From TrEMBL:
Reactions listed under catalytic activity: L-proline + NAD(+) = (S)-1-pyrroline-5-carboxylate + NADH + 2 H(+); L-proline + NADP(+) = (S)-1-pyrroline-5-carboxylate + NADPH + 2 H(+)
The species this protein was found in: Marinobacter halodurans
Keywords: Amino-acid biosynthesis, Cytoplasm, NADP, Oxidoreductase, Proline biosynthesis
Classification via PANTHER family: PYRROLINE-5-CARBOXYLATE REDUCTASE, PYRROLINE-5-CARBOXYLATE REDUCTASE 3
Keyword Chloroplast: no
Enzyme class: oxidoreductase
Tree of life domain: Bacteria
Function: Catalyzes the reduction of 1-pyrroline-5-carboxylate (PCA) to L-proline.
Disordered: region residues: 217-238
Protein name, as recorded: Pyrroline-5-carboxylate reductase
Pathway assigned to this chain's UniProt record: Amino-acid biosynthesis; L-proline biosynthesis; L-proline from L-glutamate 5-semialdehyde: step 1/1
């Protein structure tokens, strides 16, 4: 693949914007990126922000591409795939789906069969170059195509390949949905600090920096999170009280329950969408 690849995004919502924004910030050329969606306001906003080419015609968008990123909601994916199937059966690009739950076999069937398919579970911090993505490729995907997908998702964060498709449910429950868990924590910490008398803006600034600082320390290692936590807990001090309150209140069990709910929903979506395929 010596010439720069043309990448087409079908769908122009939160995730497509996050990935495209991250790509442009990290050196991908806008002239090699096409985007389609029925919603012209989404398209115009992407065109203005990033300079990418846009169209409301999915087939026209698909026609341009060596790689097509399917970035629509799982529920509209069937219609989108069946619409572009005649084009992609002719041009045979690499198909990349970021939809939660939707399995490669189902997608491939909707696309007419026999195409190389990669599934990616990204997340919204891709927009700021701090994304986390789990990736899975079918046997039809060549190494150069895997490398091309890795290049995109590594340019906007961390990209990890899994060898079994089912593991993407676990990735979804961890990093796909995960940003929302941390935003919830941020909201709760800010509210608590305001109740303790801080200005909201001050509380938010401190809470965000605390979260970012803790993540940076955990990422750099070598200490385990448990040790890093102990380092903050002076015997008889304040942190001990807070951590005991979290543990006694069942925070770990609640986190397991919440993650399992996301994991189960991902599997359920895969089964529902596969049934839709019958
Ligand atoms: N939002 C997130 O944090 C994550 C989302 N995902 C997956 O990404 C996919 C997109 O999600 P979001 O970006 O959040 O959704 P969104 O609702 O923000 O964007 C969906 C986009 O699809 C477009 N669209 C609707 N019907 C279409 C059609 N027939 N043809 C072309 N485009 C069409 C809409 O105009 C919109 O631009 C979903 O499959 C979701 O499972 C994956 C990981 C994280
Ligand atoms: O909530 C969802 O279904 C999507 C997948 C992961 C994040 N958002």
């Amino acid at each position: 693949m010596s010439k720069p690849q043309t990448i087409a995004f079908i769908g122009a919502g939160n995730m497509a914007s996050a990935i495209i924004g991250g790509m442009i910030e990290n050196g991908f050329k806008a002239e090699n990126i096409w985007v389609s969606a029925p919603d012209d306001s989404h398209l115009q906003s992407l065109r203005k922000r990033f300079g990418v080419s846009v169209t409301t015609d999915n087939r026209h968008c698909a026609q341009q591409a060596d790689m097509i990123v399917l970035a629509v909601k799982p529920q509209v994916m069937r219609q989108v795939c069946q619409d572009i199937a005649p084009v992609v059966q002719n041009t045979r690009p690499l198909m990349v789906s970021i939809a939660a739950g939707l399995e490669c076999a189902t997608l491939d069937n909707w696309l007419g069969g026999g195409l190389p398919v990669v599934r990616v579970m990204p997340n919204t911090p891709s927009l700021v170059g701090k994304g986390s993505a789990g990736l899975y490729a079918t046997d039809d995907v060549e190494q150069a195509q895997r490398d091309a997908v890795s290049a995109i998702f590594e340019s906007i964060g961390v990209a990890v390949w899994v060898e079994q498709e089912d593991l993407l449910h676990a990735v979804t429950a961890l990093s796909g949905s995960g940003p929302a868990y941390f935003f919830l924590m941020l909201e709760a910490l800010e509210d608590a600090a305001v109740a303790n008398g801080l200005e909201a803006a001050t509380a938010r600034k401190l809470a965000i920096q605390t979260m970012a600082g803790a993540a940076e320390m955990a990422g750099r290692g070598p200490d385990e999170p448990a040790q890093l936590k102990r380092n903050v807990m002076s015997p008889g001090g304040t942190t001990e009280q807070a951590i005991r309150t979290f543990e006694d209140g069942g925070l770990r069990e609640l986190v397991t329950k919440a993650s399992t709910a996301a994991y189960s929903r991902s599997g359920e979506m895969a089964r529902e969408l596969a049934k839709d395929d019958e």
